[in-house]
Structure formats: structure tokens, C-alpha cells
Amino acid sequence: MSSRMRLRGLVRKEFLQIMRDPSSIVIAFVMPIFLLLLFGYGVSLDSEHVPLAVVVEKPDADTAGFTASFHRSRYFAPQLFSSTREAEQAMMAGRVNAIVVVRRDFARLLRAPGGAPIQLIVNGVDANTARIVSGYVQGAWGVWLQQYAQQQGQKLSVPVQLEQRVWFNSELRSRNFLVPGLVAVIMTLIGALLTAMVMSREWERGTMEALLVTPLSMQEVIVGKLLPYFILGMGGLALSVSMALFLFGVPLRGSLLVLVLASALFLVTALGMGLLISTVARSQFVAGLVALIATFLPAFLLSGFLFDIGSMPGVVQLITHVVAARYYIAILQTVFLAGNDWGVIVPNALALMLLATIFLGLTWRNVHKRLE
Length: 372
Known about the structure:
Elements: H1 3-20, H2 22-42, E1 50-56, H3 61-72, E2 76-81, H4 84-92, E3 98-102, H5 106-110, E4 119-122, H6 127-151, H7 174-196, H8 198-205, H9 208-212, H10 218-247, H11 256-280, H12 284-301, H13 314-319, H14 324-338, H15 342-366
Parallel strand pairs: 1-2, 1-3
Antiparallel strand pairs: 3-4
């Protein structure tokens, strides 16, 4: 029997195993749908409709114009309070995230040379939200001042004029940032978790001994194990990218071919990681647990998917260089949002090639056609 026929038989056997094991289908196709729907609709880094307490000590036309700017903004859900003490109690109870206090002498100081200060109290338990809310309030204050100066026929004296332009994600939708990164997490799950249990399943069920007495070489066994899950992973990629484009409206400004090739390269890397784990652990439970800790968690936390790598401590930044998802997410975000920027794509693709070579080389070296 030729090597090609032996390999074809092994691949067919693996496909039959996949069809008989519902968990593989769930991980490859059902889990991506669940994760994409969860992060696409349920998780957002955008702060909108922030509950804001507004305290006006002496209402008049000027304060009404200022507070109206919060009502017109989609970023705030303002609530009027008659006193600062009531607003502070609302913040203590968690009903509002910030308090804007407009003093009694607001109208008089507004026309004075020094200007009219307003007080902003922000709940700082969530530091990120506090910074965002503070920036939103300052922005609303600046817009209102500009409009007030125009109504008075004056020119607002600002020493620096900021002309803001947002590249790549002009709508500032966190969904455009999260969904491409989530594709990398999904591909890690499909590639590493499924293959981590391939060899260990053979040992657990006692079929490895029968496989070792066949004419198959261990290299043919590796290829035969990887090929079906590579096809399964590319199917999961097609499903994920289709949902990203047509369901969530994430733009694809780069080449679809570049996206597919980069994804195939990352999938080979993930398959290599999973198969390496599978050759070491002879229990499916242990292999799955190691795969989750060694591949999924780093892809989720240390890849730049949710947390900026540049903001991490130096030691952690060094660790991220061995996380394959870091390079894949950089490619995904570039291809989806910026286009074919080869200055980003090529270095990260080379890093993935290096990691794939290392993982597959270690797997190749670690497998032997013997029982011990």
C-alpha cells in the first residue's frame, strides 16, 4: 500500500471520528457563533447613556442651555437633582456614575474675565470608565462654550485648536475592534483544543497500539491527524468572517486572500501547539486543561485582544512574544480596518512561521513509534 493511500485512509478515519463526536462540531461551528453573538452584541467598550447627575443651584437661561447639551448627547442619560447631597447619595447607591454641579453664581462668573467653573465628581471605582466620562463632560463643556460664544457674537479665545481625525475606525465602534480579535480566539480554540485531545484520545481508548503496528510512519500519523482539523478550522474561519462582515458590519479593507493565507498560517501554528500538548499528555482531560491554560487564556489576555500590550509591565510584554495570537490579531486588525499594510503583515507572518516551525518541530521530535 502506498504512502498516499495510507494517509488517505487515516484522514478518512479522522473525519469519521469527527462526525461521530458532536463536541468537535460544537467547538468548530457552534462555539464561534455563540462567542461572536456574545461579544458582538453583549460586550461593548463604548460608554454610552452614562447615568449623570446634574445639580443646578440656581436655574436660569444660561444653566438651561448648558444642561441641555447633556440631554442632546447620546453619551449621557442626565438626571436632575436639587442638591449636591442628593446627587452624592445617588452615586453612593450606584444610580449615577458622575455628578456635574453648576454653582449659584454661574451666570455672573460666565461673563467675568476668569470664567465660570463647574464641578465634576466622578466615580473612580472603574478607572477606565471614569477617564472616559471625564473626557465626555469636558467635550460637552467645550462644545457648549463654542456655541455660547457664537450666540454672543464673540470669538472663543482658545490658545490651541484641536482638529481631530480618527483613522481606520472613524465611527469609534468597539465592535470593529473586538470582532476581528475574537476570530483569533476562536481559531485558537478550534486549532489547539481539538488537536490537543487527538493523540490522548487514542491512548485513552487503547487504539494507539493498533495504530502503531500499522505500516504508517509517525510523520504520516501527524499529517493525517492535522489535515482534518485544518479543514475544520478553515470552515470555522469562513463562518466567523462571514458573521463579522454581514452580521456585524465590520469593514474588510484589505485583501480576502491575505486574510485567508494569514489565517491558514496561524491555524497551522495552533494545530502544532495542540498536537505538541497531545503528545505529552495521555489523558484527554489533562490535554484539554493544558490547552486552555497554555493557549486560550494567553490568546484572550496577552494578545492585545482586550488589553493594550504597550500598557503591560515589561516582563509581561516579553512573555507576549511567545503568544502566537498576538501576531495574528495584529494582522487581522490591520487587514480588516486599515488594509494591506505590508509593514505590519510581513513581520507578524514571519513570527507565525517561526512559531509554527518550532511547535511542529518539537512535535516531530517528541513522537516515536513505540509504546513507552
